[in-house]
């Protein structure tokens, strides 16, 4: 596939069948403020390495999909203001026009699959937004999970969403939602959403085996691994819920819609919690990087 530019480290790992974990870039450009965004991206890469895998951060630049970014590219992306937020709908257009684009969960899954990377770690997936029964706002991350064979490790779906509807959507679409090490579906900043996850697994090798068996069965699509935030970093559900509600009310009053909703809410929640939500977000991404590396290791051993 001539659209892909691999960093030398990622190219070597893929050639040797070594474990690789894909990482997204929208969390850098639209999910966290500078400079914590770049610091976190580096720490996540280091965490993947510390657990025996090679990190492959993905972004679009100069008409190419970059799989594995240099330090300078990460820095530039983290400070740029006019980066497009790319999902399935806009990936090809950004490549065609030579723009700079950050990949969401959906676009990162597409690129990871093209690159031959089976697992991808992020913070939280997009999902069904509250009020979707009138706004129709459903993240393109959900249909992507139904059609692209990549295992996505996230701390559940972001608690700004309608989590029961998000789980209903995933069930209808046939996406395995696997809570890691607990029965509850985690809610990003909190370990427990109050909802039970449809599936539970306690071991990385079983998650890797399930991905393989889906392929054997001829089932398209990926898996969502919902990894709860570490207990010491979580924000209790009673604490974060009123903050989320206030941020949602502001977004509605300001008429924020479509792609702008999630970045707006994350930024306002960061301000309202005086940075606590960001600290939690960083902790959960690092935790997902660690599990992603373990799953990538298990996938590589089984291959
Ligand atoms: N995880 C985070 N922060 C983020 C995201 C994930 O901790 O900002 C990004 C991902 O790129 C995901 C996107 O695809 O949020 C969801 O956006 P939307 O709800 O507009 O689909």
TrEMBL record:
The active site is at residues 24, 158. Mn(2+) binds at residue 137. Keywords: Glycosidase, Hydrolase, Lyase, Manganese, Metal-binding. Signal peptide: none annotated. The keyword Calcium does not apply. Its EC number is 4.2.1.70. Its cofactor is Mn(2+). It catalyses: D-ribose 5-phosphate + uracil = psi-UMP + H2O. Binds 1 Mn(2+) ion per subunit. GO terms for molecular function: hydrolase activity, acting on glycosyl bonds. Pfam families: Indigoidine_A. Substrate binds at residues 85, 105, 139-141. Homotrimer. Belongs to the pseudouridine-5'-phosphate glycosidase family. Catalyzes the reversible cleavage of pseudouridine 5'-phosphate (PsiMP) to ribose 5-phosphate and uracil. Functions biologically in the cleavage direction, as part of a pseudouridine degradation pathway. This is Pseudouridine-5'-phosphate glycosidase. It comes from Paragemmobacter ruber.
């Amino acid at each position: 596939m001539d659209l892909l530019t691999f960093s030398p480290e990622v190219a070597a790992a893929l050639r040797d069948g070594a474990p690789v974990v894909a990482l997204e870039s929208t969390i850098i450009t639209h999910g966290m403020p500078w400079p914590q965004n770049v610091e976190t991206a580096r720490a996540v890469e280091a965490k993947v390495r510390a657990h025996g895998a090679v990190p492959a951060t993905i972004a679009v630049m100069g008409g190419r999909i970059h799989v594995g970014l240099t330090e300078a590219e990460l820095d530039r992306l983290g400070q740029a203001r006019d980066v497009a937020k790319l999902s399935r709908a806009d990936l090809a257009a950004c490549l065609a026009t030579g723009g700079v684009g950050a990949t969401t969960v959906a676009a990162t899954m597409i690129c990871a699959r093209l690159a031959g990377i089976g697992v991808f770690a992020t913070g939280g997936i997009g999902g069904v937004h509250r009020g979707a029964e009138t706004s129709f706002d459903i993240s393109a991350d959900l249909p992507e999970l139904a059609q692209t064979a990549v295992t996505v490790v996230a701390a559940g779906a972001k608690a700004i969403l309608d989590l029961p509807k998000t789980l209903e959507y995933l069930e209808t679409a046939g996406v395995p939602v696997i809570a890691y090490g607990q029965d509850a579906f985690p809610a990003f900043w909190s370990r427990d959403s109050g909802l039970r996850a449809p599936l539970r697994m306690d071991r990385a090798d079983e998650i890797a085996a399930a991905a393989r068996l889906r392929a054997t069965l001829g089932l398209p699509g990926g898996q969502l691994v919902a990894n709860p935030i570490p207990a010491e970093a979580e924000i209790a559900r009673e604490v974060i819920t009123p903050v989320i509600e206030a941020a949602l009310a502001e977004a509605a009053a300001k008429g924020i819609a479509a792609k702008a909703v999630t970045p707006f809410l994350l930024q306002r929640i960061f301000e309202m919690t005086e940075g606590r939500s960001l600290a939690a977000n960083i902790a959960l991404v690092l935790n997902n990087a660690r599990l992603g590396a373990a799953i990538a290791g298990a996938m590589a051993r089984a291959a």
